[in-house]
Design brief:
Distance between the termini: 32 Å
Largest sheet: none
Radius of gyration: 17 Å
Helix content: over 70%
Mean pLDDT: 89
Number of helices: 9
Strand content: under 5%
């Protein structure tokens, strides 16, 4: 549940619906659904790749999991702060990038799959969760949390127009702010645990 709540908060499917609807407003229902499937599937593949190779990447660069936990916590707090202010996170995608992507045919790759769904914050969270796992079972649980998060994201994107019409822009902003508050608390936890573990390593 901790892994799922962390990933769900940083991926923020409801907040992503606003951007997704704006990028696919001129598409037919079939085109929009096809794009949703491709983008979420690619994001899932990217997430699994970093879940499997994250430790090897850290070892290659000589970075400890606690150092990443602190750096990732700072990054997540910045993302959370943007979410609390109901702003498009600068970590995932900027307003300028959204505008430039309107006429592109490969928006399912950029900016939707990467970096909207699997930006630096998501990748960092996945690596930290996998690095914190104490057993193979916990690794599998993180994988399941990843799969569940992107399955829900696919559902949200598939029914994005209905969700947008039902919740409205204001409703989505309220939900985004709540997710931002949760993410901020998780970011503080990342930083506190990381600093404490680094301190203990010097004892």
């Amino acid at each position: 549940m901790y892994a799922f709540s962390s990933l769900f908060a940083i991926v923020s499917p409801v907040g992503g619906v606003v951007t997704f609807v704006s990028l696919t407003s001129d598409m037919t229902l079939e085109e929009k659904n096809s794009l949703a499937t491709r983008s979420v599937l690619l994001a899932f593949v990217i997430a699994i790749f970093f879940a499997i190779s994250g430790k090897m990447i850290l070892n290659f660069f000589g970075v400890s999991i606690d150092s990443l936990r602190v750096a990732g916590g700072v990054l997540l707090f910045v993302v959370a702060f943007d979410m609390i202010l109901a702003k498009v996170s600068r970590e995932s995608i900027t307003e300028k990038e959204i505008h430039k992507s309107m006429d592109r045919s490969d928006i399912w790759i950029f900016p939707i799959a990467l970096p909207l769904l699997t930006g630096p914050g998501t990748i960092t969270t996945i690596i930290v969760l996998m690095g914190s796992a104490a057993s193979i079972i916990q690794n599998i649980e993180v994988m399941i949390a990843i799969a569940l998060t992107f399955a829900i994201t696919w559902v949200f994107f598939h029914f994005s127009r209905r969700i947008y019409k039902f919740l409205g822009y204001t409703g989505m902003l309220v939900f985004t702010r709540l997710m931002g508050l949760l993410l901020a608390a998780m970011a503080v936890n990342f930083i506190a645990v990381g600093i404490w573990n680094i301190y203990l390593s010097f004892q």
